[in-house]
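Subject: Protein entry, chain in single-letter code together with its fold tokens

Category: Structural biology, sequence-to-fold work with a learned token vocabulary.

Notation: Tokens come from a learned vocabulary of local backbone shapes, not from coordinates.

Start of record: The labelled sequence and token lines come straight after this line.
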Amino acid sequence: MPFLERTGQPRLHYEFDDFTDPWKHAPCILLQHGYARSSKFWRAWVPYLSRFYRVIRLDLRGLGQSSKDFDLDKGINLAAYLKDFTDLLDHLGVESAHYCGESSAGTLGMAFAAECARRVRTLSIISAPVAMTEEDKQSSLAGHPDRVTALRKMGSRGWLEASNAGRRFPADADPRLLAWSIDEMGKSDAEVLVSMFRFVSTVDAAPYLPKITAPVLALYPASGVITKEEHIELLREKVRDLKLVRIPLRAHSLQIVAPATCALEVLHFIARHDGIVCRE
């Protein structure tokens, strides 16, 4: 099981999937999950990508199988996340990678592409808010005054069951998918989620958008529950090289409910950048 070990930093778990021809030294794509999720949520993408790209799936610090043995008050911030990304690429000997992030990890990707431009070949974002809306900050509190209280009173699983209903998945979603997602997301430590919420609720990626030089692919639902049209307009206004694709769903978790559609959009976007023919 691969881990990135660092002195004074949390141990990070990652998955590395490579079914490319060994003599081609194919480029890498880093798939980054969002809030309360893990690298497992990219599983369905791997068959579509790993024949042509080396696929890296990182568990964010404190989530999945990555360590939560660090100061949660000080250790969850933009600088820490960007260092985790660059340290992992250094560890794997990767100078630059395609970055694909969903939801809040897409927001992180906007900052990553702006601040660490030489490490990002292209940026793909899926249902990523430029900044968290006030509506989302107050969502699904089940009678509690704020999300922090709700997480601590209800626990991760209880809060997620309330939060997921009608927001992240379509009404006709497979009940087995919903159960699996709750089981996996419910493993997240509530205090990690509290610290992550406190961080992501303050992030505004708008100032980073004009600084992004990499080509950007933006996949958004046709009608977003968490992401709003204001996010789309900011991307259109401020990103210099943008391809926007609207997926005809209302679900926020597009990468989970429409993995083939999303993965193939990303594959052909990054392959055009690299001049790779993705058919045999």
Q: What stands out?
A: The mean pLDDT is 93. The longest helix spans residues 147-164. The longest strand covers residues 120-126. The two ends are 31 Å apart (CA to CA).
